């Protein structure tokens, strides 16, 4: 932490909700359990006090932001009939993952024309302005004295983490990496669990535990071991699009059309799209309080705006499916369980796989955190599934875990003592040609006549290796031709530990960097050495290049494609 930084502010940017918290940098010197962390829970338009605002945005016909958060939802419900050009987006964070559909609210007729990246940037811009005003007013610090922490899911890879940083910088956050840290959600949740004074589930050094971070859009699972001075990741990050928002999506896209018919759903989205937002709010309240111990149905009241669209045929259909109830949506106990199990069943399988990989006998506890962790149904299902084997611990404030843990991380990033690499990292390089193993098609001749093999995988770190933060790995490279003016190195990742060629099936290119070699053109090729250093163990991969002859060092930002 630089001397200029007087305050650390964290933003837990979630699929369903987003919140911020902050603490003075001087709190770093306190025992973590006694640190004073400030939260905000007084959002305009929120149904109840909560540390997160809704991750939603309302745009006008030109793409300008009209409202964000709960106010975007409320205004969309009220004004959409008069302004059909309005576009409402919610759950756009997950759109960054390739092949994953956005968890947009089904109330939008077509969804905004803006990309997930544009929506994220617009939302973060508005959120940053709001958070900054309140932090400055409450602390007296200046904007350039704040270091920010932005959380991302563990299942996000280098590409998505980089996009999030780019979005944040475009939204007005600091460009300097030291003042904008990217934090991994289950990792900082693990820090919270370690310091939680209400119900700490982390014991002595050597204690091993699994963290299940169940949020709105994603479920992230990994495992940690407590050390004398921090935590070391021992698990294999896994997860998926199994957050509570997908239960909502299944309700709106599968259950309701069966009740009301697809034609009614289309008609309602066109005439009263905002009415489904109100129904979603009604479901959200019931979902949080659903207790599997009480075999009760869930009643969702239909708003007048939605009810008036019902035609006689729709009403008869609804009554026939609900034992005569035609003015509300009645979900039976088994039906609600089925909605939850749409995500809980695969979640339990992921927990089992994590325990299998790290050895279930060595794990004492499973820590359940995140907004979805407040669900009594999820708690009971996971507790029953673990049975007597492993204790399930739900911290005192599970929905606060990532947010508060992110502040601890910003104050003391060194608390994470090691992270497990997901891939083998390396670059495409020309290496000595092996006449027995290497195919003739990859043979090339260096300026001095030495045969080289092109497209070799020059490994820096291997997959599933536990790497301490700041670990530097250096490789030296020389030009292949005498008048080579630049050197382009393509960065690859592989799922296997020791690929030979970058063209192997498990390898894929994730970016490239180019080094200017013109300052040393007058020197012999053997003296034109470029040292490339890659830094691992952080939440992002860093690289720098050093021209040994000229003494010029260039810090390189890898652009993941």
Describe the structure.
- It holds the Pfam family HSP70.
- Keywords: ATP-binding, Chaperone, Nucleotide-binding.
- This is Hsp70 family protein.
- It is a single chain.
- With 561 residues, this protein is of the alpha+beta class.
- It has three domains: 7-193 and 401-415, Nucleotidyltransferase, domain 5, CATH 3.30.420.40; 245-338; 421-560, Substrate Binding Domain Of DNAk, Chain A, domain 1, CATH 2.60.34.10.
- The protein is 29% helix and 28% strand.
- The chain contains twelve helices and 29 strands.
- Strands 10, 11, 12, 13, 16, 17, 18 and 22 form an eight-stranded mixed beta sheet that branches. Strands 1, 2, 3, 4, 8 and 9 form a six-stranded mixed beta sheet that branches.
- Strand 10 and strand 11 (219-227) form a beta hairpin.
- Helix 5 packs across helix 6 (262-271), helix 5 runs antiparallel to helix 10 (333-358) and helix 6 crosses helix 7.
- The radius of gyration is 26 Å and the shape is globular.
- The two termini are 30 Å apart.
- The model is unreliable at 101-111 (pLDDT under 50).
């Amino acid at each position: 932490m630089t001397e200029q930084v007087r305050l650390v502010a964290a933003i837990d940017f979630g699929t369903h909700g987003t919140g911020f918290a902050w603490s003075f940098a001087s709190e770093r010197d306190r025992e973590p359990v006694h640190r004073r962390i400030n939260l905000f829970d007084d959002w305009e338009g929120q149904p109840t006090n909560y540390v997160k605002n809704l991750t939603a945005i309302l745009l006008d016909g030109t793409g300008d932001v009209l409202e964000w958060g709960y106010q975007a939802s409320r205004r969309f419900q009220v004004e959409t009939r008069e302004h059909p050009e309005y576009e409402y987006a919610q759950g756009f964070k997950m759109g960054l993952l390739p092949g994953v559909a956005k968890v947009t609210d089904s109330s939008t007729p077509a969804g905004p024309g803006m990309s997930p990246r544009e929506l994220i940037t617009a939302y973060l811009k508005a959120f940053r302005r709001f958070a900054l005003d309140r932090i400055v007013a409450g602390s007296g610090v200046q904007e350039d004295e704040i270091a920010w922490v932005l959380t991302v899911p563990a299942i996000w890879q280098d590409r998505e983490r980089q996009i999030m940083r780019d979005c944040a910088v475009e939204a007005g956050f600091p460009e300097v990496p030291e003042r904008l840290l990217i934090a991994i959600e289950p990792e900082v949740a693990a820090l919270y669990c370690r310091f939680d004074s209400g119900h700490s589930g982390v014991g002595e050094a050597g204690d091993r535990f699994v963290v299940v971070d169940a949020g709105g859009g994603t479920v992230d699972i990994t495992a940690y071991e407590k050390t004398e001075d921090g935590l070391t990741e021992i698990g294999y990050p896994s997860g998926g699009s199994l957050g509570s928002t997908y239960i909502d999506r299944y309700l709106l896209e599968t259950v309701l059309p069966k009740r009301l018919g697809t034609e009614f759903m289309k008609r309602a989205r066109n005439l009263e799209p905002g009415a489904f937002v109100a129904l979603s709010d009604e479901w959200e309240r019931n979902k949080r309080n659903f207790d599997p111990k009480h075999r009760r149905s869930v009643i969702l009241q239909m708003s007048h705006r939605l009810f008036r669209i019902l035609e006689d045929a729709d009403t008869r259909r609804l009554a026939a499916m609900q034992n005569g109830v035609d003015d509300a949506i009645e979900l039976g106990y088994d039906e609600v369980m089925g909605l939850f199990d749409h995500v809980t069943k695969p979640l339990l399988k992921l927990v089992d796989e994590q325990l299998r990989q790290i050895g279930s006998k060595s794990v004492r506890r499973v820590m359940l955190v995140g907004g979805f962790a407040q669900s009594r149904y999820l708690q009971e299902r996971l507790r029953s599934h673990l049975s007597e084997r492993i204790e399930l611990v739900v911290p005192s404030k599970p929905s606060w875990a990532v947010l508060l843990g992110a502040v601890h991380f910003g104050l003391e990033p060194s608390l994470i003592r090691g992270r497990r690499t997901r891939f083998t990292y390396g670059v495409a390089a020309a290496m000595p040609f092996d006449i027995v193993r290497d195919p003739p098609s990859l043979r090339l001749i260096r300026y001095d006549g030495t045969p080289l093999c092109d497209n070799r995988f020059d490994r820096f770190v291997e997959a599933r290796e536990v790497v301490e933060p700041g670990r530097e790995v250096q490789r030296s490279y020389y030009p292949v031709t005498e008048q080579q003016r630049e050197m382009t190195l393509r960065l690859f990742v592989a799922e296997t530990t020791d690929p030979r060629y970058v063209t192997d099936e498990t390898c894929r290119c994730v970016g490239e960097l180019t080094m200017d070699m013109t300052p040393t053109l007058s020197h012999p090729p053997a003296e034109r050495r470029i040292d490339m250093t890659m830094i691992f163990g952080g939440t992002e991969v860093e690289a720098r290049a050093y021209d040994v002859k000229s003494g010029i060092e260039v810090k390189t930002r890898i652009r993941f494609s």
